[in-house]
Every structure is written in C-alpha cells, then in structure tokens.
Amino acid sequence: MPEQTVAATHPFLCYAHTVEIHIDFGSIITGKALKLIKRSPYGKLVVPQAQVLDINFLNRPVGSTGVAEFAQPCMRAFAAQLKLVVPKVKTVNASYCWVGQKSKNSVPSELIGRFVRLMYFSPSNFRAANFNSPRSCKLVPNFTSGITTFETDWKEHYQVKARMAHLNALTLVGLAISFGHTNDIRTLINSHDDYIVVYPNLIHLDLLAKNTLPQLHKPAINKGAVPFPKLRRLNIDMEYPFADDVLFRGNCKTLQHLTIRPDIDTIDMLNRYGIFTSTKYKRLKRVYIGKQTAAVDTPKAIVAQFVVRVSAHALVLIIEDNSYRDDFVLSVVQSKALDQLQYLDVRNFDLTLCEIINMLASMPSLTHLVNNRVELGHQFDDMAVDELGDFMLMSYFPLSKNFRHWSCTSATTGTAEEVALCAVLLAIACPRLPCIAVKANHYDVFCERIHELVSTEPYAGFVELIEPLPKLYGSSRVD
Fold first, then answer.
1. Given Cys at both, which of 174, 263, 443, 459 links 149, Cβ 3.0 to 4.6 Å?
2. Domain limits at 365?
3. Where is pLDDT greater, at 23 or 476?
4. Is 424 within the bounds of a domain?
C-alpha cells in the first residue's frame, strides 16, 4: 500500500490551481531547503492538479563563501523534489528581490536562472524587485531566456538589464521599467551595437518615473524603426520620454489602453505625426490622463482639446488633473466628440448640475460619471426647489436613457444635501438612473434629504420616475 499523501487528507489541495512559494535562495544552494521540504508534512505534500507555480526568491547573503561549487547538485535535488509536489505544473512565475545589502557572499544572480530552467522550462514570468544585475554583460546569457514578463528599474546597471530585455525581445509579452533619467531609455530600443531592437510580441508596456526627471535631451529613434508593433496597453506614467512618435508606430490597430501625461511638447509632437486623427486608434477604448509633469505649463484649452481627440473612440476616460476643468467641459459640449464614451471619471472636478446636463446631452452613451462636488448652478438660481422637478421633466426628459450610475467623492456634509437634490432632479430627467454613490460618512444625510424631497407634494408624483426607489435609498457608498 503506497504511503498516503497530504493531498488525500486535505481534499482542497486536490483542486488547487496555483502554488505559491517564498524561499531564501541561499537555503536552496546550501541544501537546507531540501532537508526542510522532505520533512513531515512537506515530504508527503502533493498538489496534483496545480498548473501554476509562483516562486518568490529572496536573496540574502549566504553564511560562507565557496557555496557555488555545491550549488548545482543542491539545485537539481531541490527542483526534483519540487516537481513531485506539483507534477502537472505548466507555468512557472519567478520573482526575485534582494534582502539587505549585496555582499561578497550574496548568491550570484545567474544561479537563479539556472535553477528555474531545472524545472520543466524557462520561466513564463520574471519580476525583479530591487534587482542588482551582474556587472558584466558576459553573465547575462547564462541567466535565463524565454522570459515573457520583465519588471525592473533602470537606475542601477541599466545597460545589463537592457541586454537582458534584448535577449528576450522575441518572447516578452509584458515589460515594466522605472526610469531615473530620460537618456537611459534609448537603451531599451538601441542595442549596444546601435541596432534597433524589436519586441514583436510585446502587448503591455509600462514606463514609469516616481519623480520628475531632470530636463535632459529626449532621444529620437530611426524613422523606420517599429519596435512595438503589437502593443495593446501603453502606460506612460511619466513625461513622454522620446522626441518622436516611436512608441506609437505600427500599433494604431492594436492599442486598447493608454495612460499619458500631456504637455505642450508631447501634444505638438503627436499632432505633427498625425497620431490621433479620427481614422486611427479606433480600438483605443480606455484612456487615463495623468497630471502634467513638465516644467512649462501647457495652455489648458490645448490639453482639453487633446484629451477629447485622443478619447474619440474610448469607452472609458479617467482624468486626474483638474486644472483644465472648464476647458474640458466646454470642449465636450461643443465638439460632441465623445459619443461612444460610457464611463467618465473626473473625480477631482467640481461640476454644476447645468454642466452635467450639458455633458449628458453631448455623451448619449454615458452610463457612469464620477466627480467631486456638485451644485445646482446659475441656471437654477432664480427657481424655488419646489419648481425644479417640473422644470427638469418638461425641459429635459428623457435626458439620457443610458445613464445609470453617478458618484460624488466630495467630503463635505453640506454637499451631501446638494447631491441629494441633484440626484432626484437627474433621476427625474434620466429614467434609468437608480444608483447614486456618496461617501459613507455622508450616506445617512444623503438618504434623509432624498426621503424629505420625495415625501413632499411636488416630488411625490415623480416616485415612478425615480424607480427603483429602494435602490436609490440603498445607493452605493464611495469610501
């Protein structure tokens, strides 16, 4: 009779899809990890249906030098034991980070790549946090290949990390890089012998900078180069780092998600190359506009017009910067270009009910709106509250048949009462608006005000138009 496994005594293990391991890599190459995994209950542990193995390697300095000569047999033995635990694994996700300071006793980086290859295949993902690369590029080919996801910073040893990206250019699907200088980014596309590197299968590119980068010369790339022809997601969470359109070349039929921080130079460049004309980027469905980082302020009207143009085919638009609020609202209303937009998040914008009405009229597909504060606006200054319901019904019904969810993120109690009044008025004009979201600490005030309004004679007749009323009372909370 074979020895009973842990999976048999713990049935949930039979159905687990993913196994996650956090381990000090030094314990693998010294043999300590093998002794641990063979002990009870780990020695009998089997996850028979697991398809994914997530391994997070911690690299602490090992206790003594000279461990490299024993590393290979220890790694083979541990990998063989690990295969017994997850016999059907198909995907290995390897992440790697340093713990403490790198020292002469730290595990050589290339050993981790060798260990992962001792599993069934090269890792499908490699995520590097606080990654210190080998100083010599000669070590990189010994590290690993076949990587599909690579996350790292470009601050230390960026030439070696660039070499690693180049070696895996054919297989990379996702790439995320945090930069320290704009001039470093050229190495992502230019190889050491100045050839253009193409990432033919890359679909997700993140370019990040936590702080504003020094004002350095932005590189321009050969006009014929198309390094990212299949991008679906482009996240530029920094000042646009190139002097030309290299990030947008060849992907106008594939790009679906875009994050960008518009400044005057970037907008001028994109206009010059005709990037966001009406016939291009029709598959671009999600646009996130971040705050400007450039030292020179961009005219607000130019930014607003650019946002409307880049979002012409978008279903989702999120705007972080509220400095061009007035110009954006005016551009939306005047151009009527966002007729496909379904979700608009302008959580830092203060809007009037008049502006919301005009925007809804210009965006017939809109289902969700998120904004900060709201007030009635000058159009209603001379009208009594009792008159507003009839006015909305006669003037605007049906304002929008698609608008279903409105969120206000403001934190003032007085605003909750104002939101409640505006909510009732919008519900009268928009027959499918059952959900208004406010902050949790103002929820009670919000509901009390709505109850007061619908209990009075002028608004009691609109109960059917504010259907379904229980859901309106139970509106979502914005925490």
1. 174
2. 350-479
3. 23
4. yes
